[in-house]
Structure formats: C-alpha cells, structure tokens
Design goal:
Order of helices and strands: HHHHHEHHEHH
Number of strands: 2
Distance between the termini: 89 Å
Helix content: 55-70%
Oligomer: single chain
Radius of gyration: 25 Å
Number of helices: 9
Strand order of the largest sheet: 1-2
C-alpha cells in the first residue's frame, strides 16, 4: 500500500520521471531493440496472437496507421525518382494523388505478377534502395505509354519543335 507522502511525491514528480524514462530509452535504444528481438524470437506464437488480437480490437486505428505509413513510403519513393520535385517527368503534373511509378523498360507487367497489392512496388523499391529503371509519371501519361506506346504530351512537344 502506497503511503500518502509517496503518492504525493509520485504525482508532483510525474513529468520529471517521464522525461527521465524517455531520455533513458533514447540512450539505450539499441539495447532495447536487441532485447525485444530476442524476446520475440523466443515467444513468436505468443507475440503473433497478441498482434492479431490487437489488430482485431483496433481495426480503425490500424487502418489509419497503415494508410499513413503507406503514404509516407509513397512520398519517399516519388521524391527519390523525381529528384524531390514530386512531379510527372512528362507533363509536370504535381498532385501526388495522380503520380505513379513507371517502368522505363516497359517490364511492369512481369514485375506486377510478383506483387500482391498495388502499393507493394513502393515498398519493394525502398527495400532495394531505389534501383535504376524507374521514373515518376502521372496516371494519364503512364497509361497512355502503356496502351498506345506514346504520350500525347510528347506529340505536342514534337509538333511545337518542328
């Protein structure tokens, strides 16, 4: 049983204790991660059951978190392949909602067969440290190149150069 004096001290020094704990975890981050990995490998089944239960009980939170992380990875990949301009290499479209990754060698169909889900390419590119052979195009330019072999913006540029 906590005494009244101890309770008062705990409540008045709560912020101080939290700052100490945060500082301690920052200073010992690698040790903590190693400990967590070791615990996970010895308790895999228990951890998986806990994670599954959490995901089921907090569906909306998990959905929002995944959405945020996927958007972050997409911005990172698009930023890399567009030299941080975040725009279409063909027409200059800058709205991130319209931008996508284009396979420069037109081998996207082969690669898509290996993926599960449309977002996988962003994670795949990040995991492989952004290999060459990709660029950022808007959906219109990307689809036009895929279906017709050219983009209408390229035709306009050729006619204006003549």
């Amino acid at each position: 049983m906590e005494t009244e004096c101890a309770k008062k001290w705990r409540l008045t020094h709560k912020g101080e204790r939290q700052r100490y704990k945060q500082r301690w975890y920052q200073e010992h981050r690698e040790q903590q991660l190693a400990h967590q990995r070791k615990w996970y490998h010895t308790h895999k089944q228990q951890a998986r059951e806990h994670n599954k239960k959490y995901r089921l009980e907090h569906k909306e939170h998990v959905k929002e978190y995944r959405k945020m992380i996927n958007a972050k990875v997409k911005r990172e990949v698009l930023g890399h392949y567009s030299s941080d301009r975040m725009s279409c290499a063909c027409c200059g479209e800058g709205h991130i909602e319209f931008l996508s990754i284009d396979h420069i060698n037109n081998d996207g169909a082969q690669q898509r067969k290996a993926f599960v889900g449309a977002r996988s390419i962003y994670w795949w590119l990040k995991a492989r440290e952004f290999p060459n052979g990709y660029r950022v195009l808007c959906y219109n330019c990307n689809l036009s190149l895929g279906h017709h072999g050219y983009c209408p913006h390229q035709i306009k540029e050729e006619k204006s150069n003549e």
